[in-house]
């Protein structure tokens, strides 16, 4: 027989106010449709599920207050009626918010603020872009502040003349550079590279070249502008620097470097388009050596110039002027030698030189980075490769070869350092020098024939010995210097011109 031991008060029992159970006594208070309802009764042991926290004994906040107990008549307690709105509920000062309310209150204003900022930035950039596009479309130069620094009748030719004849040779004052840069109207893209783009621009009726660096190349831009403004650097065979500035184009900041414009473009482009005569070859070679010689040369004195090594000399970094001479450009990797302290100023830069033109000591990492002559040797090696490119395009009579890059037949189009090291250092190979450079005679061109035979000169200036010395592991050790190189080229030029007369 089942034994019931617990006695409880009961409001739900018919004919009695008591009940007995083997489970628990229960009392609950609730509000239904605005009316309070109090219930006292018994629940069996089977209804006390799950054990420890039975569903029958749970309260519902704001709806039901329940109390279970386990002694006789223990459910006679008077429970408080649960309030639908507690003093701390709502949005008042004493409110107790749950997680959802807190997220909504915090995220709402933050979202609105971000939205307002985005809209503001968009409107600001849109306005600047419209102004910039309007200027570019109309081709109108912005005259703001121009009259403060430059005479209205000063032309580009006047400006270049002032730069060429200035005492310091270090370029224009910074405020004048900014004025020039901000009054240039860009016309067309004329070149692209890893640094950014090169544009042809207009300033007061004259053409200028504008090299626009991407923001990630800021160090290269700063370094190149710094080198170009070295005192006494200006030379007819080094690209003429005009100005450097950072400009807001309405969307992002552009880094500008403004220089002389040369319509022939780079020596690489020029040799791809045209072949050259012996005289043209000598002019290109002599002017390139002259520019590099001035770059390397140290000028002593209060207005002196440090020695500078290029470190990335190649046909793409040499421009061809209208008169058929060269101008060395792209000084972003250049290093300066401070003779007073015998130190080399190498700017921190992620760029490296062009692998195809790297000297053997650079490829195998044996170059002495503390010795300035090491960098000059590497430049002369690269110049030797440039000379090889020029000589291939010399049309002495009817013979000239198609343009090719150095080592075109030995390495792929974009060689790795390891591939170049294997060819140049391990196999010790160099660009091929055709036999006809040494022995070719042109019977149909008597002045060239006489120059080659009676003067005992081979084609142009490129004897095997001279070229081999320039492309040696270190040209200086082979006895080749820019002074000797200049002398050799100039002698050939003088003899050729003398006979022509």
Automatic annotation (TrEMBL):
SMART domains the UniProt entry points to: GS, S_TKc
Topological type in the membrane: Single-pass type I membrane protein
Gene Ontology terms: cellular component: plasma membrane; receptor complex
Enzyme Commission number(s) of this protein: 2.7.11.30
Superkingdom field: Eukaryota
GO terms for MF: ATP binding; transmembrane receptor protein serine/threonine kinase activity
Protein's name according to its UniProt entry: receptor protein serine/threonine kinase
């Amino acid at each position: 027989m089942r034994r019931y031991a617990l006695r409880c008060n009961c409001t739900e029992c018919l004919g009695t106010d008591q009940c007995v159970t083997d489970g628990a006594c229960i009392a609950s208070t609730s509000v239904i449709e605005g009316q309070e309802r109090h219930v006292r009764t018994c629940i069996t042991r089977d209804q006390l599920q799950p054990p420890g926290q039975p569903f029958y004994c749970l309260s519902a906040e704001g709806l039901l207050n329940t109390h279970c107990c386990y002694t006789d008549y223990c459910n006679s307690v008077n429970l408080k009626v649960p309030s639908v709105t507690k003093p701390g509920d709502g949005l008042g000062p004493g409110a107790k918010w749950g997680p959802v309310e807190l997220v909504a209150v915090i995220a709402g204003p933050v979202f609105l603020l971000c939205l307002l900022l985005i809209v503001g930035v968009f409107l600001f950039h849109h306005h600047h872009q419209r102004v910039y596009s309007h200027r570019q479309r109309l081709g109108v130069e912005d005259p703001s502040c121009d009259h403060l620094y430059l005479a209205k009748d000063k032309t580009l030719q006047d400006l270049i003349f002032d730069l060429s004849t200035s005492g310091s040779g270090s370029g224009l004052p910074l405020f004048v550079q900014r004025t020039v840069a901000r009054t240039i109207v860009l016309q067309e893209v004329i070149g692209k590279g890893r640094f950014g783009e090169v544009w042809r621009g207009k300033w007061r009726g004259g053409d200028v070249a504008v090299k626009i660096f991407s923001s990630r190349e800021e160090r290269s831009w700063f370094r190149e502008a710094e080198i170009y403004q070295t005192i006494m650097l200006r030379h007819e065979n080094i690209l003429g620097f005009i100005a450097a500035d950072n400009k807001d184009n309405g969307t992002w900041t552009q880094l500008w470097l403004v220089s002389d414009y040369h319509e022939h473009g780079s020596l690489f482009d020029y040799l791809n388009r045209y072949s050259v005569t012996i005289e043209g070859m000598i002019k290109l070679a002599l002017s390139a050596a002259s520019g590099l010689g001035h770059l390397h040369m140290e000028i002593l004195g209060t207005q002196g110039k440090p020695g500078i090594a290029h470190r990335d000399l190649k046909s793409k970094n040499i421009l061809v002027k209208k008169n058929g001479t060269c101008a060395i450009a792209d000084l972003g990797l250049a290093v300066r030698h401070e003779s007073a302290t015998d130190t080399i100023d190498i700017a921190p830069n992620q760029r490296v030189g062009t692998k195809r033109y790297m000297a053997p000591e650079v490829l195998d990492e044996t170059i002495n980075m503390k010795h300035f002559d090491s960098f000059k040797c590497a430049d002369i090696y690269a110049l030797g490769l440039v000379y090889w490119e020029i000589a291939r395009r010399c049309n002495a009579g009817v013979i000239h070869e198609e343009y090719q890059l150095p080592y075109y037949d030995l390495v792929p189009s974009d060689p790795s350092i390891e591939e170049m090291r294997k060819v140049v250092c391990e196999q010790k190979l160099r660009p091929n020098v055709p036999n006809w450079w040494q022995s070719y005679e042109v019977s149909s061109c008597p002045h060239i024939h006489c120059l080659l035979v009676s003067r005992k000169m081979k084609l142009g200036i490129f004897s095997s010995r001279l070229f081999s010395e320039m492309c040696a592991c270190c040209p200086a050790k082979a006895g080749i210097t820019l002074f000797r190189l200049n002398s050799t080229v100039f002698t050939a030029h003088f003899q050729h011109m003398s006979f022509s007369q």
